[in-house]
UniProtKB/TrEMBL annotation:
GO terms for molecular function: SCF ubiquitin ligase complex binding. Transmembrane segments: none annotated. InterPro entries: F-box-like_dom_sf, F-box_dom, LRR_dom_sf. Pfam families: F-box-like (PF12937). Gene3D superfamilies: 1.20.1280.50, Ribonuclease Inhibitor. Signal peptide: none annotated. This is F-box domain-containing protein. SUPFAM superfamilies: F-box domain (SSF81383), RNI-like (SSF52047). Residues 15-62 form the F-box domain.
Amino acid sequence: MASSSSNSIEEEATPPPWEKLPREITAAILLKLGAVEILTTAVEVCTTWRSVSMQPSMWRYVRMEKSDVEWPHDFDDLCRRAVDLSQGQLIGITLKGSGTNDLLLYISQRSGQLKHLALVNCYDITGEGVKEAVKNLPLLENLYLNHTYIDVEAIETVGRSCPLLKFFILTSFDWRSGESDEEALAIAQNMPGLVELRIFGNRMTNVGLKAILEGCLHLKSLYMRRCHNVNFGKLCSERIKDLKLDVDSIKKYEEEILCLFAKCSCALLRSRSDAKSEVSLTELLR
């Protein structure tokens, strides 16, 4: 009986096999889980997983989806924890389904290295919130706004505050009747370094399109969907190497971009040991 009891104690003291894995392999496994599951579940499994999860390198890219967050956890609180764990090393972040102006400002104030920002269905984030946040993001290269309303002033501020901006997606779903070139002119006048521009649902006319072509001289790719006031002529087809017009469904469009942001995070993690390595979302699109 004593021997049986001793064996039982030894079995209980034996660490689980996954604790013997190299830390880099453990990190790769945990990254498959996603930010929410790491913060709410993985950190409780064992001391090794918790230790690896606390490494700033684990939080260079964060994707937070409201649908992944269950009670009693709070979306904003979890996102703040992820940002804090990054210790200023955050490179890319996607918020989907939730988020506030205060949260966006919190992220920007602690993420001066941020290059990639995607806001998807963040109805509580306003143009004013975006405007204040981007003032803290001078290295931002890629900005994706879907169902996140920003006004002309916010677009102007993005352009002035983010001189390295190369990739801009504006999905406004502004399908009202009438014409307006205000947003197009704001892009043309304040985002001269754009390489790729994607616009879904906009009331711009040929005047706005021509301004973009003349103001964004580095533009190589232009995707436009449901921009019904624009007639694409010879100038556009000759000027833009990659031109796509109303070819995909919006669901496919959203998933494509979010997958690209995820690919970007993997590339960033692979290259984190090489200080000279740079990863661009526009490069991943090729």
